[in-house]
Amino acid sequence: MKTEAKAGAKAGAKADGVGAGAGAGGGRRGSVVVVGGGLAGTTAALALADAGLRVTVLEGRPRLGGLAFSFRRPSPVGELTVDNGQHVYLRCCTAYQWFLDRVGGSRLAPLQSRLDVPVLDADGRPGRRLGRLRRAALPVPLHLAASLATYPHLSLAERAQVGRAALALGRLDPADPALDGVDFGDWLRRHGQSPRAVEALWDLVGVATLNATARDASLGLAAMVFKTGLLSHPGAADIGWARTPLGELHDTLARAALDQAGVDCELRAKVTAVTRTAQGRWTVHKAGGAPLEADAVVLAVPQREAHALLPEGALADPDRLLRIDTAPILNVHVVYDRKVMRRPFFAAIGTPVQWVFDRTDASGLAKLPGAGESQYLALSQSAAHQEIDLPAAELRARYLPELERLLPAARGAAVRDFFVTRERTATFAPTPGVGRLRPEAPTNVPGLYLAGAWTATGWPATMEGAVRSGLSAARAAVSDIVRPHLDPPPAAGRGIPKEAA
Ligand SMILES: Cc1cc2nc3c(=O)[nH]c(=O)nc-3n(C[C@H](O)[C@H](O)[C@H](O)COP(=O)(O)OP(=O)(O)OC[C@H]3O[C@@H](n4cnc5c(N)ncnc54)[C@H](O)[C@@H]3O)c2cc1C
């Protein structure tokens, strides 16, 4: 395998593109085409270019960012910049933070200084409606103990049971293949968790991070999320989110970083086939454009697209990719004529509403001349299987009264705009057994690598998983193409970070 890749790399250092887009960076040590410009593909391209390879990204859409993007929307208040879905990350997402750093976007998506999640119970008695999940400046697991002990949405007995289950979860090894097939909901039941504890705590966090309720989630992935997020480090679950449109980070800044790294980036370049040449190199065919030739290819597209593009023999059982199911996320966007919520975000129970974020500044609403006191809220509704295809009018009739139940100030407010964004294949479904379907980055054919949040990262479908997958693919390609030349290691700070190891 490696010999062929090495031979190809030598050839690739001289001749590269057979069509348009051969790109900058001539004289580099080998060439790679990255198919897909989501977070996985962009990451792989940056890491490969940083390692001295000549890289071309081919992205089918007119922008980078894949599933995490923004668009402009004319609204009665003026033009808004809307994220297709609210995205958050945690302090334990070290690879995504590397990405933010690498594109120069860290300050635009800061972390909370300390985990603090307001949890509103729509059915709660006055004085007991608001709970807080926050951490204290104490070592694990005491950092969360005080918050749990005073969490008003659970009884004393339920809080004690949650503490015991959390400790049991902390003893599991998320990488243990035996956990992959176990249903997290069942495990919680066996560990004494009441339906209320599941709703008010486990699903509150789990649905947003796994995009599935506990009963539809693999114990391995759930253990990964809860153990890494809550029990690996006191600050691991501090929440970060973009204070700017996602497109600014994942498209504008990413494109500038790729450009600076010498990566050739072709948008509206849909790849139709990837074939091996007689010399062991790769030809990447695009719809309506000349093909490109390269030493290696990273397929950073969703699992179905990857299945369609995989050449014969690349995976022992390629149809496994088709058994990796998907799960939807719905976002409900409401612009009120006044401020109805004081906090930047909250989570809710006792209502279909899940997580609500204030988007007034990030969308540009705050600066619109006619905005006045208007406030823009985005409701992030994960695992929205039942609602993803409902008409907007029905969703409006469902969610506006719920917001009024949660936010008294919304009761007298006028709605200036209401719309929804639907992502039917937002993530892979983290169902029990999905772990054995997720492939590693290297394939069985030399010079072909897979990336994407759906590959075997150990993480659920997240920005973190996507970045990790891109780093893993780059690492595998670099070790096949570059290392055989025994070149010196990249300069400090420019190599592929260890997170991918
Ligand atoms: C609404 C929503 C909310 C989310 N919330 C969060 C969150 O809060 N936190 C979090 O961490 N994650 C969240 N996620 C998940 C996160 O966005 C994804 O896991 C991540 O962006 C996936 O990146 P990727 O690069 O693996 O795949 P993708 O983003 O799917 O990128 C694949 C790219 O390949 C391109 N492509 C496909 N076929 C071809 C082809 N033939 N030729 C060329 N290009 C092609 C596509 O156009 C796309 O740009 C959310 C996702 C959604 C949709």
UniProtKB/TrEMBL annotation:
Its cofactor is FAD. The keyword Oxidoreductase applies. SUPFAM superfamilies: FAD/NAD(P)-binding domain (SSF51905). GO terms for molecular function: oxidoreductase activity. PANTHER family: BLR3003 PROTEIN, PROTOPORPHYRINOGEN OXIDASE. It holds the Pfam family Amino_oxidase. The keyword Oxidoreductase applies. It comes from Streptomyces lonegramiae. Keywords: Oxidoreductase. This is Hydroxysqualene dehydroxylase HpnE. Residues 39-476 form the Amine oxidase domain. Its EC number is 1.17.8.1.
